Amino acid sequence: MKKWISGLTIIGSLLVVSACSNDEGAEDTSAEEENATEETASSEESGGAAAEGEQSSEGESAEGEGEQAEMPEPDLEDVPDVVAEVNGTQIEKPEFEEAYNAQFQQMAMMSQMSGEEVNQDDLKTQVADGLVSQELLVQEADNRELEASEEETTELLDQLTEQAGVESQEELYTMFEEQGMNQEEVDEQIQLQVRVDKLIAEEAGEIEPSEDELKELYDQQVEQLEQMETEEEPPSFDELKPQLEEQLVSQKEGEAAQKLVETLKEDAEIEMHV
After folding, report:
1. CA distance linking residue 152 with residue 190, whole number of Å
2. d(CA 25, CA 30)
3. Which residues contact 79 (CB under 8 A, 6 or more apart)?
4. Rounded average pLDDT per 10-residue block, the chain, 274 residues
5. Rg of the Cα trace of the chain?
6. Which of 124, 137, 17, 122 is nearest to 89 (CA)?
7. End-to-end CA distance of the chain
8. 156 in Cβ contact with 191 (< 8 Å)
9. Which burial class, exposed, middle or buried, applies to 78 when counting CB atoms under 10 A from its CB (0-12, 13-18, 19+)?
């Protein structure tokens, strides 16, 4: 069974295909600030209800909103032992469950904020399709005989170490071991990610975002901040430019990956069981 490390690039992003072209950095910031806004609003409503104890209908409404904040549970009872087959390679239930639980947690948190129930049937289909997409990319990397050098794997390990907020690769390995992945599994996953990254780089070619594209993305992010009615002044374009470039490159790589997946699907033998 493959174990996918949270935080890796193309492989992780393909788990939910519809998110590939979105601005992940903007979404993360937006989600955190919206969550803070929700919590503040909830506290104010609860306080108002307590102060106006005689207005029972308003108090009940506030309590109802608090009850809706309960985290839903993933439903995996009907998942078959083999979720899909890709050119003869089976995607098995444990791999699906691991990917599904990670995505379900994100969707459940969004559900708490929006009040809309998670459609688990749709999510199962999305996750299964994402795992099929991953397998197609891995198989294509094998077909092209793409290799991961020691320097490339070390560079990616260093990036993950920094992202995890730990001081050494040893601490990173310990962290993953606590999550059920030994060092050999982590190294295999790192090498696999490097090879898939090379595959996507071949497909995407040289990516150089234009000034107009960067400014358009910047304006979108400023507009999002304004809609949240925060008192913070948005960073200047020059301050955000390096981050904007990274986001656009990541977005275009995701689009190239998805285009490649669609091409690979045309000639692949795929059987879905969810």
Report:
1. 9
2. 9
3. 93, 96, 97, 100, 124, 274
4. 48 42 40 44 45 47 50 90 97 93 90 87 94 94 96 92 91 89 90 93 93 96 85 89 94 92 97 95
5. 22
6. 137
7. 18
8. no
9. exposed
Residues 6+ apart with CB under 8 A from 201: 253
**8 A C-beta contact, residue 14 and residue 20:** yes
Neighbours of 54 (CB within 10 A): 6
42 contacts 66 by C-beta, under 8 angstroms: yes
- From CA 62, how far away is CA 78, in angstroms rounded? 36
Q: What DSSP character marks residue 16? A: S
Beta partners for residue 270, in sequence order? 86
Q: How far is residue 157 from each of residues 12, 153, 160, 182, measured CA to CA in Å?
A: 16, 6, 5, 14
pLDDT at 232: 81
Three-state secondary structure readout of 51-84: HCCCCHHHHHHHHHHHHHCCCCCCCCCCCCCEEE
Beta carbons of 130 and 15 less than 8 angstroms apart:
yes
194 φ/ψ angles, rounded to the nearest 5 degrees: -60, -45
The angle at the Cα of 57, spanning 54 to 63, to the nearest 5 degrees, equals 100
Give yes or no for a contact between 100 and 74, defined as CB atoms under 8 angstroms apart.
Answer: yes
Q: Provide the whole-model pTM.
A: 0.72
